Amino acid sequence: MTIWKCNACGNTVKADTPPDICPSCKERCEYIDVTCYIPGCGGPASDNINAEVFDESKDPGKGK
Domain extents for the chain? Predict the structure, then answer.
């Protein structure tokens, strides 16, 4: 399952596709795939977030 990060509030959601409305901030937001796909963070089977991608995406609250 993919881990999606809301670009507005930073909330993460595990789903095959990102939701239309963020369950946390209730906004229609852009989502970033922050799923770990590399061995350094455990790979896709680990169900971990790729911290590098998570940190590089927009800071919460800085727009959509």
Answer: 2-56
